[in-house]
Every structure is written in structure tokens, then in C-alpha cells.
């Protein structure tokens, strides 16, 4: 007689196996979670606590734990121009980057053929050089006697007669430095588009503009959203471009945070500004994602 | 025995290995490092600040608002077991480009000679780019009484003063340092923050002064010499002028121009100078306020005239002019200190003493082009580079020295208050 396999034991085994598998999944999560806890959550909490510290009464220039929300209002009251400027510059840089990157990504995805890999490498290649060095190179490119400035001056297009040490240079630097972060997600998302959909649009007598507006653009939205976020967020917090390419009137919030942290050793104000920056960006990003309706696409 | 130059392959002169550039060090220091990278000329001192050296300043400090600001109250830093005899090494943190070096090989001749002579290995780190930034980096360890793993650090007067006052500097064993005891030039022997140089020894000094592009200046204002601050603020130079982001140099020169004494001023006088600075920034005369990046702007011709540092301007070459403003410039010194709990104090003292040998000092000054604090270096320069013996920017005459001010020693509260005003004026 064939041995009877108890049904119950089979199900238990299956259940055990799946339990084990899910346990393994959790175990595999531990390094990632640990990493986040140590390098994100703890610093974030510390930053927040620091932002509420109060100046010590007995020893001025040092700070003690406290709950001083006025750090935020004071910091914003003093530094709101740099705050606003950061978002304006970052917004402009993001817009320019999108305008430049979209055709480029489109070309790479649909027209480049065999050159595709090479072009992608070229997009990323500048990142092999130091961020700092590249920004510094812009000082040479935009020099007062350089071809760019002289050319625009000949057309009387520059109010100050120069580009370097103006807001234009800062926005140009930001656009350039974060361009790859716009191109790559755009490319990834354009590349995924089934070209037959575009062909279908054409077959159905859509004009090129209509096809772009109704087919290509909506399908590339995830790339647009990812690209704009990856450009805007770091650009808003950047301080190198403003430092090297701007003047005293083009300072951004990153410069102010740096000065408060290093020069004044005023950690609460620096932390409050950092935290406020994060909060504002978070709110902007959430409403942006909601509006563009790409929550599940990104 | 070979010298080891820190953690990385020694960078070529005037360059910094890219992997050494850290995010935390961007801002001005970054500009400085890059300025170094872009120019493969001789290297130079990066950021310089002036502070109290004179007795006048000592009085000012002692009269300060805070009770614990008296510099005499300094207590020596904690010491640790000295392993100098068993571990023949010493860790030295200095500013980039502040040491003679061979442009091609990256070797540092004077350090190599020391290693050969003493058998002590020197780990030489160019990791101080900014006084405040370096302090921020090691502050926690200092406050918690932990070693900072450096046997010698080099800090500008006012920061050195802060360290000595806070007990972050160990008393030097002068008996074991015959050169250093005998050869500090008189002017720097008795400084306010360290009378008798018990805790610190000068490394190099320098001036805050004018530098300009001769041909461009002539083109714009009709003369190729710059003598007064009024000329610097000539509207014809609009947008072609930069000043230093170092408060003590820029404000010192403006205060002297206004007829006030940068070594002894009131808050009103400081604010008066801030107003003048603001005016020149707002009307577009001052293009930007820079740390070391003004060097490359001078070279590219973007900037015609600057308030800069002597060693920097000299190294730009003969197309550029250098002069002390008629109303006065600034004078500062960078000082070597031994931090708490170092384990190679004796080795560090030997090394410091070695650099007080006049001939070695002459070699350093011939290279970095800053003022030598070592007695006899001028005579020794005859052998090293006779052309530099009469260079008043390395061996200043009494006249030049008299035209330079040492910035008043500030209490920490004053320093913070003035820094805030200054940073606000320059857009931060």
C-alpha cells in the first residue's frame, strides 16, 4: 500500500516555506533599513533637534538643547531673499535644462541608431571630471574678454556688460551642471515608448504636433517628472555655482547655511535653514507629483 | 628613509589631487584649491587673516566685555605619553602651497632634508584651507578632550589666540629648541595672545594690500600705479574690482582709509567701514568678494584691481603691480601650535626648531614669497637667492611695516558680531 501522505503536512510545509521566504525578504531588508536609520533618520532627527537649540545664557556662542521655534522665524526673516532666490534660480535652471534635454533625449532615443551608446556616454562623460572643476571652467568660458561675453555685448544684450558674477552665470552654471540628471531619466522614459504608438498616431492623420502632444509627451511624463525633480532639488540647495560664478547679490540659501555653519558656528540657524529648505522642497515635490498625476509612474 | 606626504600620492606643485576635494570643503576653500589647480605656477598660501600681534591689541582684548577673554589666562593643553623616541614620525597639518616643493616630482626639499638629518618621518598634510573650517572639523574632538591626530597645526593669529585661550595648545619646550628660542624676529616675539611665544611659533607672515593688472589699469584710469583706496573706488574701475572675503584684511584697509586705526577701533568705526563697503558693493564697483579665486580673475583680466595678499600678488608676475595702500594695509601671521594629547611632541618640536634655521627659513620664503619670521633669514637669503635679499615683501623695511596694521584682537563676542555684519554686507 502506498504510503498516505498527510495533506496537512504538505500545507504546513508550503506555509513554512513561504514564511521562510518572507523572513528572508525581511532579513535582506535589514542592511538597507539599517543604512537609512544610521545615515538618514538619525541625522535628520539630530538636525531637527539642533535647529531648536537655544543660545547658552552663561556661555554666548555655544548652544544648549531647547525648543526655540523662533530660530525658524528669525532665520527666514533674515534670509528670505536668498531663500526665494534659490527657488527662482533652481526653477529657471530646471526649465532651461528641460528645454535643452528633451530634444537631446528624444534624438538619442529615436534617431541616434548605432550612436546611441556613444551619445549617452558623452552626456555622462563630463561627470567624470570634478563638479568643482567644471564649474570653475565656466569662469573661463564666460570671461569678460571671452567669445561668449564679447559676442553678446556686441549685440548689446547684457545689462551689466558682463556675464560672470551675475545671476545669468549662476543659472547657466546650474543648468549645465545638472543637465545629465535631466537627460538620463528623459531618455529612459522615451526609450520605453513603443514606437508603434507614435506610428499609429501618424497613421490616424495626427499632425506631428498633435502626435507629440497626445502621445509622446504624456508617455514621457514619468521622465519629465523624474528629471525635473533630480534637477530642481539639488539645484535649490547648491552653493558652488553661486559662490564661483555669482556676485554678492546672487548668493543662494546654500551659501547662507554654509556661512552660518562655518563662519558663525551658529548651528541652530544653519539647521533651521536646512530643515526649512527640506520642508519647502518636500511640499513642492508632493504637490507637483500630485498635479502631474504620475504618482504611480515615477 | 622616505618621507610620506599624507594619505595620498603627493600632488604636483600648485595642484590638489581631486580625490582630496570634499564637499564639506567647497565654498571659498574650493575656489582656492581650484585656483591652485588651474595655475601650475608656484604654490602659495591660500587664506590669510590678520589679528592681534601688538601690545595695543592686548589691552583692547583685556578690556573686552567678556570676563574670560584675558589671554594671560591660557592654560596648557593636556599632554599624552610622548612616543617620540619609539615612533620616529610627526604629523603636520598646514595650508596648501605653504612649503617649498619641486614642481615636477612633487618632492619637498626642505622636508626631505629634515627626514634625512633627523630620521623622523614627516606626514605632511595640506588640509587646512580656512581657519574656521578647520576648527569646525576638529572642534568636537577638542571639546571632548580627544586627540586630533595632528602633532602640528598652523593657524592664523586670531584662531591661534582662540586655541591658546581655550587650552588647545601645549606649552613648547623651548629649552629643546635653540633656534626657535633665539630666532623669532623681534616684532613677533611678544604677541598679545602669546607673550614670549610659549605656545606658538610663527610660520609665515604676510600683508593685505593692493594688486593690479598694470596694462588694464592704465587703459582704464590712465596710470599704471595704484596708491590709494580712492583710486580703487574710481568709477572707471566699476565692476573690475574685488576685495577679500577675509573680514580682517578688507575691513582693516577700509578703516585705515577712513582715518581710523584697524588696531584699535570702536564699533561705530567698524560700522562706518561696513557702510563704505556696502556702498561700493551696491553701486557695482566691487564685482565680487573672494577668497583666493581672485587670482585667476586677475590672470584672465576680468578683474583689474584687488585687495589681495602679498605672496599671491607677487607670484602673479611682473605684469601685475603690488603696493601697500597709502593709508595702510594689514599684517597677519600664521602660527604653528601643538594640539592637546599629541603623541610626538618632541618630534614636532624638533621639526619646528629645524624651520628656525635661517637658511632653511630663507628657502621657504624664497618659495612661498611671504614674510619670514626668522632672524638671520635675510642674510641667509644671500646664498639661496640674492635677488630676494632686498625684497620688501619678504623682508619688509621699517617703512613698509609702519604702513601696515595688525587687526585688533576681538573677543569671541565681538568677532561674531563683526563677522555677521561683514557677511551680511557681502550677501551671506
Automatic annotation (TrEMBL), chain A:
The keyword Membrane applies. SUPFAM superfamilies: MetI-like. It is a multi-pass membrane protein. Signal peptide: none annotated. Residues 83-290 form the ABC transmembrane type-1 domain. Pfam families: BPD_transp_1. GO terms for biological process: transmembrane transport. It is found in: Cell membrane. The keyword Cytoplasm does not apply. Keywords: Cell membrane, Membrane, Transmembrane, Transmembrane helix, Transport. GO terms for cellular component: plasma membrane. Coiled coil: none annotated. The chain crosses the membrane at residues 24-49, 87-110, 117-137, 163-188, 215-236, 270-289. InterPro entries: MetI-like (IPR000515), MetI-like_sf (IPR035906). Belongs to the binding-protein-dependent transport system permease family. CysTW subfamily. This is Unannotated protein. It comes from freshwater metagenome.
Automatic annotation (TrEMBL), chain B:
Keywords: Periplasm, Signal, Transport. GO terms for molecular function: polyamine binding. It is found in: Periplasm. Gene3D superfamilies: Periplasmic binding protein-like II. CDD domains: PBP2_PotD_PotF_like. GO terms for biological process: polyamine transport. Its main location: periplasm. One of its GO terms (cellular component) is periplasmic space. InterPro entries: SBP, Sperm_putr-bd, TAT_signal. This is Unannotated protein. It comes from freshwater metagenome.
Amino acid at each position: 500500500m502506498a504510503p498516505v501522505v498527510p495533506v496537512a503536512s504538505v500545507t504546513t510545509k508550503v506555509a513554512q516555506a513561504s514564511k521562510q521566504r518572507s523572513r528572508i525578504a525581511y532579513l535582506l531588508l535589514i542592511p538597507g533599513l539599517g543604512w537609512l536609520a544610521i545615515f538618514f533618520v538619525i541625522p535628520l532627527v539630530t538636525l531637527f533637534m539642533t535647529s531648536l537649540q537655544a543660545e547658552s545664557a552663561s556661555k554666548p556662542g555655544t548652544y544648549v538643547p531647547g525648543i526655540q521655534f523662533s530660530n525658524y522665524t528669525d532665520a527666514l526673516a533674515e534670509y528670505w531673499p536668498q531663500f526665494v532666490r534659490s527657488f527662482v534660480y533652481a526653477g529657471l535652471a530646471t526649465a532651461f535644462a528641460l528645454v535643452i534635454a528633451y530634444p537631446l533625449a528624444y534624438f538619442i532615443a529615436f534617431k541616434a541608431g548605432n550612436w546611441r551608446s556613444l551619445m549617452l556616454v558623452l552626456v555622462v562623460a563630463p561627470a567624470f571630471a570634478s563638479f568643482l572643476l567644471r564649474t570653475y571652467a565656466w569662469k573661463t568660458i564666460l570671461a569678460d574678454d571671452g567669445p561668449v561675453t564679447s559676442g553678446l555685448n556686441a549685440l548689446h544684450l547684457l545689462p551689466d556688460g558682463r556675464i560672470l558674477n551675475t545671476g545669468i552665470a549662476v543659472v547657466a552654471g546650474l543648468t549645465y551642471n545638472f543637465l545629465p540628471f535631466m537627460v538620463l531619466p528623459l531618455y529612459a522614459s522615451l526609450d520605453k515608448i513603443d514606437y508603434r504608438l507614435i506610428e499609429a498616431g501618424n497613421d490616424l492623420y495626427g499632425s506631428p504636433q498633435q502626435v507629440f502632444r497626445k502621445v509622446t509627451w504624456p508617455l514621457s511624463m514619468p521622465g519629465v517628472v523624474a528629471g525635473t525633480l533630480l534637477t530642481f532639488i539639488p539645484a535649490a540647495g547648491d552653493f558652488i555655482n553661486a559662490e564661483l560664478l555669482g556676485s554678492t547679490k546672487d548668493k543662494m540659501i546654500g551659501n547662507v547655511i554654509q556661512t552660518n555653519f562655518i563662519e558663525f558656528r551658529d548651528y541652530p540657524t544653519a539647521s533651521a535653514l536646512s530643515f526649512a529648505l527640506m520642508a519647502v522642497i518636500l511640499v513642492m515635490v508632493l504637490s507637483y507629483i500630485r498635479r502631474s498625476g504620475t504618482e504611480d509612474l515615477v | 628613509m622616505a618621507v610620506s606626504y599624507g594619505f595620498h600620492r603627493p600632488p604636483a606643485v600648485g595642484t590638489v589631487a581631486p580625490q582630496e576635494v570634499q564637499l564639506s570643503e567647497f565654498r571659498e576653500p574650493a575656489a582656492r584649491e581650484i585656483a591652485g589647480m588651474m595655475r601650475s605656477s608656484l604654490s602659495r598660501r591660500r587664506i590669510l587673516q590678520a589679528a592681534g600681534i601688538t601690545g595695543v591689541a592686548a589691552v583692547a582684548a583685556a578690556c573686552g566685555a567678556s570676563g574670560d577673554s584675558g589671554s594671560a589666562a591660557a592654560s596648557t593643553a593636556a599632554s599624552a605619553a610622548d612616543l617620540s623616541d619609539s615612533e620616529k614620525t610627526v604629523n603636520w597639518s598646514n595650508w596648501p602651497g605653504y612649503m617649498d616643493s619641486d614642481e615636477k616630482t612633487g618632492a619637498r626639499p626642505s622636508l626631505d632634508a629634515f627626514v634625512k638629518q633627523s630620521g623622523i618621518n614627516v606626514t605632511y598634510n595640506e588640509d587646512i584651507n580656512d581657519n574656521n573650517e578647520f576648527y569646525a572639523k576638529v572642534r568636537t574632538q577638542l571639546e571632548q578632550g580627544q586627540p586630533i591626530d595632528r602633532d602640528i597645526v598652523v593657524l592664523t593669529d586670531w584662531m591661534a589666540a582662540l586655541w591658546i585661550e581655550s587650552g588647545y595648545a601645549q606649552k613648547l619646550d623651548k629649552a629643546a629648541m635653540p633656534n626657535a628660542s633665539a630666532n623669532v624676529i623681534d616684532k613677533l616675539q611678544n604677541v598679545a595672545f602669546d607673550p614670549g611665544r610659549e605656545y606658538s611659533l610663527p610660520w609665515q607672515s604676510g600683508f593685505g594690500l593692493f594688486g593690479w593688472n598694470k596694462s588694464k589699469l592704465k587703459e582704464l584710469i590712465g596710470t599704471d600705479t595704484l596708491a590709494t583706496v580712492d583710486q580703487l573706488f574710481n568709477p572707471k574701475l566699476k565692476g573690475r574690482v574685488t576685495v577679500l572675503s577675509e573680514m580682517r584684511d578688507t575691513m582693516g584697509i577700509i578703516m585705515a582709509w577712513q582715518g581710523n586705526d584697524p588696531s584699535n577701533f570702536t564699533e561705530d568705526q567698524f560700522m562706518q567701514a561696513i557702510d563704505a563697503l556696502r556702498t561700493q558693493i551696491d553701486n557695482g564697483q566691487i564685482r565680487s568678494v573672494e577668497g583666493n579665486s581672485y587670482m585667476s580673475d586677475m590672470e584672465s583680466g576680468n578683474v583689474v584691481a584687488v585687495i589681495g595678499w602679498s605672496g599671491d600678488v607677487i607670484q602673479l608676475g611682473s605684469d601685475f603691480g603690488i603696493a601697500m595702500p597709502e593709508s595702510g594695509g594689514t599684517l597677519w601671521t600664521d602660527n604653528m601650535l601643538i594640539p592637546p594629547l599629541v603623541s610626538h611632541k618632541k618630534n614636532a618640536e624638533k621639526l619646528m626648531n629645524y624651520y628656525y634655521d635661517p637658511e632653511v627659513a630663507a628657502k621657504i620664503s624664497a618659495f612661498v614669497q611671504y614674510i619670514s619670521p626668522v632672524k638671520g633669514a635675510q642674510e641667509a637669503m644671500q646664498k639661496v637667492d640674492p635677488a630676494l635679499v632686498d625684497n620688501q615683501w619678504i623682508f619688509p623695511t621699517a617703512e613698509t611695516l609702519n604702513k601696515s596694521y595688525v587687526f585688533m584682537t576681538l573677543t569671541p563676542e565681538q568677532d561674531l558680531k563683526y563677522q555677521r555684519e561683514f557677511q551680511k554686507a557681502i550677501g551671506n
